[in-house]
Amino acid sequence: MHSGQNTLAAKDSGDSATNALKRGGQVGGSMAKLKKTDLEISRDNDEMREISVTLDFTPNALASVLYKQGDTVVLACCTKQNSLPRWFPRDADRGWIHSEYSLLPGSTDSRFQRERRGAKGRTYEIERLIARSLRGAIDLEALGPVALTVDCDVLNADGGTRCASITAANIALRLGIRRLIASGDSLPKALRPTYEEKKAGWSAPELDAEARQSHENSILANDIAAVSVGLVDGETYLDLDYILDSNADVDMNVVMTSDGRFIEVQSTGEESTYSREEFNALVDLAEIGIKQIHDIQKATLDGVE
To answer: Domain 16-301 sits in which CATH superfamily?
Structure first.
């Protein structure tokens, strides 16, 4: 059932002509100029960092993904809970998706202290973002009365950890759902047992390949991915690593589905304001990167059970 390893890479960006603000061009009526730090950027403005994916990195989870985007590394594990949350009604016929996020102690240049007494502000905010993003594209009624948790642990942080976590979580979630369908733990509503059937020793029907795919599509019709973009010295940059992020005047995290719909846009002026033109340019650039990520997500799970 488990697939071993599947690794893909994305090194080249989309058409650079779609980047509205060119290197050295005008932004908001002023000429772009380098900061005194004179950043050494090895990528083009619209070029993604290299992405690689390893499936089933840990064998005990329902599905696990080791996701690398440049030097940012995230382990996403999808697990099935024994029961629905306590606040669900006993006869609930819909499921739930929860997520947790953490930076491991060795993920940053100085040791990151474990949050033993619960998630703190930034961590809690990111956990909620990941969970919202996943629930934003999933049909919980089609999933059925199943509770899933997706844990995202950052093994190495070099910018874009929340976006990488969302992307990795989606891969783990889809693979987990695919396996729940195969095992009979998630069935179309018409095939689910009644309480009396369960007591009588009901066994799950086995769906053929077409029916399994149809049910998977009804639960998770589209993939979810996220990417960061930013304005650095008046220029738009895609997929910010730590150097770009720490020097950005404006940074933005964009979460989208594979059919081109937005789940969330987080945009902040870091000691700066920005125009509608610049906002639009950042969103356009994010769409380029997310399209590439969705292609990788789809290829990664093609034929995997």
So the answer is: GHMP Kinase, N-terminal domain (3.30.230.70)
